[in-house]
Structures are given as C-alpha cells and as structure tokens.
Specification:
Blueprint (H helix, E strand, L loop, with lengths): L1 H10 L1 H12 L6 H26 L4 H32 L6 E4 L2 E4 L1 H4 L14 H11 L1 H8 L8 H27 L7 H14 L1
Antiparallel strand pairs: 1-2
Helix pairs in contact: 1-8, 1-9, 2-8, 3-6, 3-7, 3-8, 4-7, 4-9
C-alpha cells in the first residue's frame, strides 16, 4: 500500500504544478474538468502498471527488475533535466512559451513550457476537452513510470485509487496556492524526478 501511495504522490506533482500555473494566470478549472484530469491521470497510471505486470509475466523477473529500475532512474534524471530547461526558458521568455519555425510552419511548444496553454481558446476556463488534452500531456511520464513498476508487487487498482485521491488533492491545493508557487519562477517538477530515483533505488 505504501508503494502505491508514494507512486501516486510522485505522479501528482505535475498535476499540482499545472493547477498552480492555471490559478496564477486566472484560469479556472471547473469541477467536471478537474474530474477529467484526475481520472485520466489515475487511469493512465493504473493501466500502465497492469500492462507492466503482463510484461513481467513474460520477461524473466531479474531482467525486468533491472530494466525497470534503470528506466525509472533515467526518467527521474530526465525529469530533473527537463525542469532545469523549462526554468531557464521561462526566464528568457516573456510569455512563458517559445515559438519555433520548422519548414515554414510555426511550432508552439506550449504544453511543454506552459501548462496554461491548455486554455487554447483563451476563455480563462478549462473545458472538458482541454482538460483531457492537458491530462494526456501530463501523463506521459506517469505511463513510463507505471510500465517500469510491474516488478514491485504494486496493485494497479490500488495505485489508480491512490492516484485519484492524490490527484484531487493536488488540483485543490494547486488552485489554492497557485500564485505563491508560480511566483517562485522555478519549475518544481524536479522534485518528482528525484523521488522517482529514490523509489527505483529502494524498490529494486
């Protein structure tokens, strides 16, 4: 149970930061949209863990455990690096986003650099569809994390339930403390990366 709770806490950090960023920009997340974000994030984690356990039944446990721990450590390191890059880019970008032109077509790296880009229609309100897009973008790391955890005797349903509860708390707390968190001008997702590395070391 402790592993599921710890894992749910780790993957909820991005949800907390996204809610904080939206609050700081005056963007509201209605209850329905919050529920969509929470459910998708929790479901991605639960499904990926279930898939991981299926792989674990095929691949020798020792090999899977070693590969899973290596992936988690790598993912943690990449998350820390991504956090540093995002903090640097946000410092040199007035709007918190970067426009790049490739082949004559503009490429806006919004969701990567700015969670508030989920408000695509600039309505200052996250619709259910926008919430789904934000949740899926935020769940990529959760999916990779879950797929790497099949060796750890983690219950997919318990992980889903824990992630749902932690996600709801993260959304509420992020909306409440948004201005204070965002005023730091630092991407705090590095904390999730560090916790992933710790989780991998103690679970291996």
């Amino acid at each position: 149970m402790l592993k599921e709770i710890f894992l749910a806490f780790i993957v909820s950090i991005d949800t907390f930061l996204a809610a904080a960023a939206c609050c700081n920009s005056g963007i509201k997340i209605p209850i329905l949209s919050a529920a969509v974000i929470d459910f998708i994030c929790a479901a991605v984690l639960g499904i990926s863990i279930a898939f991981s356990q299926l792989l674990c039944s095929i691949v020798p446990l020792g090999i899977f455990r070693l590969c899973g721990a290596a992936v988690l450590i790598t993912l943690g390191a990449l998350t820390i690096a991504k956090s540093l890059v995002r903090s640097l880019i946000r410092r040199i970008s007035d709007r918190g986003e970067l426009s790049v032109k490739m082949g004559g077509s503009p490429l806006i790296l919004k969701l990567y650099l700015d969670d508030t880009a989920a408000d695509a229609d600039h309505s200052k309100l996250i619709s259910a569809g926008e919430a789904a897009a934000l949740a899926l973008a935020s769940s990529l790391d959760s999916a990779a994390t879950g797929i790497s955890c099949g060796y750890g005797d983690i219950s997919p349903f318990t992980a889903f339930s824990a992630a749902f509860v932690c996600g709801a708390a993260a959304l509420s707390l992020g909306s409440f403390t948004g201005r204070k968190i965002s005023s730091l001008h630092h991407d705090l997702s590095w904390a999730g990366g560090l916790l992933l590395i710790i989780f991998a070391v103690f679970s291996a």
